[in-house]
Amino acid sequence: MNMKPIFLAVLSVAMLAVSAQAQTIRPVVAGVDTLSRVVAQADSGDIIELVTNGGVYEEFARVPVNKVLTIRAAANLTQKPILRWRVNDEIRVQASLLLKGIRVEGNGIAQYAMQLRDLTTSAPPVRLICEDVDFKTFSPAGEGYVLRVRANISRLIELRFTNCTFDSVGKSVLRLEFPSNGVDSIIYEHCTFANASINGLNDGERCLRIEFGSYPTPPKVRVKNCTFYNIREDAVRTTGLCELRVLNSIFNRVRDNPVQCDTTISSSTIAFCDTLENNNRFSVNSGFNIGTIYAEDPEFENPLAYNFTISQFFAQNFPGDNGRPLGPARWHPASSSVKQTSAEKPNAFALHQNYPNPFNPATIIAYQLPSASAVKLELYDVLGRKVATLVDARQNAGSYRYALDASRFSLASGVYFYRLQAGDFVQTRKMVLTK
Questions:
Q1: How many CB atoms lie within 10 A of CB 392?
Q2: What is the per-residue pLDDT for 179?
Q3: Number of helical H runs and strand E runs in the chain
Q4: To which H or E segment does residue 433 belong?
């Protein structure tokens, strides 16, 4: 009898029970070792909020996470709080952890952002989830990792990174060394990897290096809507049996293989990816499914300034499996989110209430133009500061829909106002983002 589904069901019920309990929110102001002190005092299930706008949280020692915690930025901050190491240490993950809305800097000193290791066989299962986290400068001489897993991974259930960025990493963004049983899924979605494996030339390190043993059920590895730029070795390298799916991703200036995989099951797939400047596109076994592959220039706006916005031409002509542009949503050109739904002339200008509202992270803004107009659709925070210009173009008469993805603009939870100006017509409406 396969006990894994039963085990996962029991685990889900247990996590729901924990979430149903009253959670303590512990605010932390910027300073020296302020985070590690609060982590030490926290109880399992607590939420630790970094409340200083753009504040620097400097750490001179390891931050051990041995209880279930959330570490996140407080709502309505306009700049991410920064967790910065002044010594060669890390977050030592030994229990489930959610990181959200912060920036983590190695300062060129720390070898690791996080390590998952030294778990006892009696430890509860671990989930590590990072959402909208920026990792930067983990590149001491000859070293550098964002996450390294060296553990009894029968205790590791899920690794998931969503809307994260990785910049200047000496060796591997992810290195997982697994024994013969354990993990269920590893997921990277809407992530940006730039300047990785810069210390690892020809030493076997990869941007994502994942080593599996022999599992009863092959683990799932998902890389979807990601951008890889200036990678000195392979971008994705898996060893051991797994189900690997790489979709809607851009590989640009990858020195070796965008994907190298020696053993997969028949449902493994690479499709709707762009591999310009790669002489060897993929190194995979014969059973791998390779779908639509482009070899086009995404025309990044300014990669040296970490701006990987793709061109309008690339977005429109080389779509992903869902018809949307390749790569992370944050780098899609704004006007690619606008669609004319009808060319019939409306009777009057109108800006409609977004739907759904509240929303997370996507919503639709609809508006109507009875005549051709110079159109500006702008987004403002509750203090009246402009957050983004969504549309700035001349448009013909008709009805339009703008698909707003809050993750593209790294918006915090809260109230926002969207404003339409078309000729002399001006209208503003309110929306609420919840996370």
A1: 13
A2: 55
A3: 3, 39
A4: strand 425-433
First-to-final CA distance of the chain: 39
At 209 the three-state DSSP class reads strand
Q: If DSSP codes are grouped into helix, strand and coil, which group holds residue 4?
A: helix
The C-alpha atoms of residue 131 and residue 426 are separated, in whole angstroms, by 35
Residue 305 backbone dihedrals phi, psi, to 5 degrees: -105, 20
Q: How open is the CA angle 21-158-7, to the nearest 5 degrees?
A: 70
- The 8 Å CB, 24+ separation contacts for 289-292 are none
Residue 258's nearest CA partner among 276, 240, 285 is: 276
Beta bridge partners of 399: 342, 368
DSSP 362-376: EEEEEEEESS-EEEE
Q: Maximum Cα–Cα distance for the chain, whole Å?
A: 70
Predicted confidence (pLDDT) per residue in 177-207, tens digit: 765 556 789 999 999 999 987 665 545 578 8
Lowest mean pLDDT among 26-40, 61-75, 90-104, 278-292: 278-292
pTM: 0.76
Give residue 225's Cα distance to chain centre: 9
The tokens of 105 are what? 């800097």
Which of 189, 198, 142 lies closest to 167, judged by CA? 198
Distances, alpha carbon 134 to alpha carbons 191, 293, 356, in Å:
10, 29, 28
Q: Is the peptide bond before 361 cis (omega within 30 degrees of 0)?
A: yes
Phi-psi region of 118 (alpha: psi -120 to 50; beta: other; left: phi over 0): left
Rg (alpha carbons) of the chain, rounded to whole number: 23
Q: Three-state SS for 162?
A: strand
SS3 56: strand
DSSP 371-430: S-EEEEEEEEETTS-EEEEEEEEEE-SEEEEEEEEGGGGTPPSEEEEEEEEETTEEEEEE
pLDDT band for position 97 (50/70/90)? Answer: very high
d(CA 262, CA 289): 13
- Residue written as token pair 């339009």: 400
